[in-house]
Amino acid sequence: MSVSTSNRRTQALSLLERLEPSAPERVAQNLDEFHEDATEILLGFAFTDVVAREGISLHTREMLTVAMLAAMGTAPGQLEFHMRAALNTGVTREEIVEIVLQVAVYAGIPASMNAITAAKSAFTSV
């Protein structure tokens, strides 16, 4: 692993820890078991190159991420994780409820229903 690769990995895992303290070890282990470069490639891009940018606060980014994952309707594990992360960055339960209701209008009732399931689980675990 090169210095720059190691640094990207470290930065990504540090930001992931801000979102959910127990996540870095669990996520890195899962990705490392898949391939030795997976953590750096996937998390380095997502968390070091994009999420760490200064143009939008982490709080706002998590609200946007929840809305997009809820609208996608195809990533329930990531949606629940980012709902917990949103709560950990100061997003309120009420704001998550409003996001889920907004999803119903623009992405459909089924996507919103899936998001409700994720929200209920996230609310009980934070």
Written description of the protein model:
- With 126 residues, the chain is an all-alpha fold.
- The chain folds into 2 domains: 1-53, no CATH class; 56-126, AhpD-like, CATH 1.20.1290.10.
- The chain has 7 helices and no strands.
- The longest helix is centred in the first third of the chain and has 17 residues, at 3-19.
- The chain is globular and about 45 Å long.
- The protein starts with a helix and ends with a helix.
- 33% of the residues are buried.
Radius of gyration: 15 Å
For the record, give the distance between the C-alpha atoms at the N and C termini, rounded to a whole number.
Answer: 35 Å
Task: Give the CATH superfamily of the largest domain.
Answer: AhpD-like
The helix/strand series, from N terminus to C terminus, equals: HHHHHHH
How many structural domains? 2
Query: Which bin fits the share of residues in helices?
Result: over 70%
CATH class of the largest domain: Mainly Alpha
- What structural class is derived from the secondary structure elements? mainly alpha
CATH architectural type of the largest domain: Up-down Bundle
What keyword list fits this structure?
mainly alpha, 126 residues, 2 domains, AhpD-like
Topology record:
Elements: H1 3-19, H2 23-34, H3 38-51, H4 58-72, H5 76-88, H6 93-107, H7 109-125
Summary of the model, kept short:
This protein has two domains: 1-53, no CATH class; 56-126, AhpD-like (Up-down Bundle).
